[in-house]
Amino acid sequence: ERQLLKGDVFLFVGRCRKRAKVLHFDGTGLVLLTKRLFRGRFARPWCEEGAQAVELTVSELSLFLEGCELAGRWRLSPPVVDEKTLAVAPAL
Length: 92
Prior knowledge:
With 92 residues, the protein is mostly beta strands. It has a domain at 4-45 and 54-66. 10% of the residues lie in helices and 20% in strands. The protein contains one helix and three strands. The chain has one helix spanning 58-66, and strands spanning 10-13, 19-25, 30-36. A three-stranded antiparallel beta sheet has the order 1-2-3, with no helix packed on it. A hairpin with a 5-residue loop joins β1 (10-13) and β2. The radius of gyration is 18 Å and the shape is globular.
């Protein structure tokens, strides 16, 4: 479902969670970022065993790569408004 050439970013985490790789297309080519931890492990962003994909926001990805553990997810922004169903109030 995801498309690398359309701007999606892919995060790969090693089985022992000491290495992480980020794959991104910057418009001219593929960029591969790698990070290896010498102490500790990356947090486990997926909940159940065998999970194939988890969507992270840019902030969550940044926190993950900095070594923070994700304690939970709270929606900080209001839900996206669909412009087609948005009712416009008359001007006064």
